[in-house]
User: What shape does this take?
Amino acid sequence: MLFRILKNSFLKRPRSIFLVFLSITMGAAVATSFLGIAGEISHKMSLELRSYGANILLEPSAVEGGGFLREVDLPKIKTVFWKYNITGFTPYLFGLVDLTAGTKHERAVITGSWFYKQLLVEGEEPSFQGIQVIAPWWELQGGMPQDADEAVVGASLARRLGVVLGSRVVALARGATKPFRVVGIVTTGGYEEEQFFAPLVTVQSLLGKMGKLSRVLVSAVTVPMDAFGKKDPAAMSKEEYEKWYCTAYVTSVAKNVEEVMAGSRAKPIWQIASAEGALLTKLNSVVLLLTLLALGASAIAVSTSLMASMAERSPEIALMKAIGADRLQISAIFLGETLIISLAGGIVGYLLGDQLAALISQSVFNSAIKSPLWLLPTAMVSAFAVALAGSAAPLRRAFLIEPVKVLKG
Amino acid sequence: MASMIIETAGLTKSYGEIRALKPLDLTVPEGEWLSVMGHSGSGKSTLLNLVGGLDRPTAGMLKVGGEDLLGRDEDGLARFRREFVGIIFQQHHLIPYLNALENVMLAQYFHSVPDEAEARSALERVGLGHRLKNRPGELSGGEQQRVCIARAIINSPRLLLGDEPTGNLDHGSTTMVLELLRELRVEERFTIIMVTHNQEVAAWGDRTIYLDDGVLVREEKKLVEG
Assistant: This one.
């Protein structure tokens, strides 16, 4: 009987039914698309944020490092469990040298590093590593060194030494000299402006520290730290540790890298990691809030349509009550209607939302995405929630209908 | 002596300042056909709504079938209506998008379980076995009223209430409906309370009470023949 009532009701009021269907479909579509791109936004934003600096610092362990890391271990970074999350890394070797440029002399820090080096690791895709990868925000006048005797000078140091692009600077260390041609002057607003940058192998040779490194900066895509991520791994159970290790927290990625770099100690650079985490959390919150707002707007639209429909149907409801329908039976009829509509709205909303998410992803991030299948039940639940929330006020109005007043005369 | 299906004492209904029914003492024996007459606004429909559990009294005692209706909540009154009462409206009040059979089954649905064979049989009893699949818009006024009667009796009520059930019918249809009610009453042995303006219609009852301005002013009992 309920089916007959619902079927006939649908056939009799197609316009009203369509409006409710449209409202629910829009809500489900927006929820699907927003939640669908939420993961994508986090991933893309995390990648974008990598251009603001490395978030993991590898230093020699005080206990077993012997003061240096080994260059030979660097390729292993591209073989770790989280290798696909590691977007780049750069080795550094620091030392003090006496610099001479023309008539000016200054004792300064020389930094040996990779600038844009192709890394070939057996069994892995070739990749490029170096300062250009992990610090693309450098304001560089000129270019990066291509040869062993080319160098980049920090802007402050360059001013004091009076060097410009093409100038010749001689570095003296351990009684040996090494001439460099300045091919770049870097402005960062930080300590780099006081340093002299040259290719790693040249600096290792000059300082007599072949194959040695002072530190490695690693840039990795990570997830925001939550309460679980902040727990001390040493105090975790085996299951907890596995879960922590398999989640891309900055701490677990750091631990992962530390394991392959002999004598190293990996530390998250918290000001970067925290800022990223806070930004990504806020971004996710905004997406969630927008989704809830969209669902709320849909529920209001559903409620408005149902209110109008309820006014039109008050004689019908009054009659049902007069011949003995109680509130549960009235609810069954009207919620039954909206739930059937929401079932259809949820499915259509999911399909529309999937297309919308693909469109947004394509236009904003220039990449295609496919909404995960778990969004289908999410879209269905959203549609049901919209239908239920939108039905609350109309149903209350139905409960208040008095047969005596409506059926009078 | 028949037991009383309806007992009221000091039954009153007010709408704000207006007292639609002034303290009324009334008893109706089980199986009686009671006609209620009076002018518009005399309190006839108010009385019918109160005994049918469609409205709540302002004061007084109201027992139907031995039970005090004042103690029931809204859903309790709905249960009372579907289990105890059948209502015939002047305007029929059929659901326009359901056919005759479905309109009768609707009352079954709210009562318990729809039974198509039983609903068909009820419509056949009121002479509409050939109009089962017709919607209200395709039926005459008299036919619609007979669907309304079939719906009212489908759950075997103990109390059948009619609010001007023949008010919109021509003379022929009126007689047909009243004869039908008389036959059904004999078969089903329910009590009828029928509000009417029409003296001829009221005369079909065993007793007629007259209300004026919410007060029972007179009653007439039909003399039993023989």
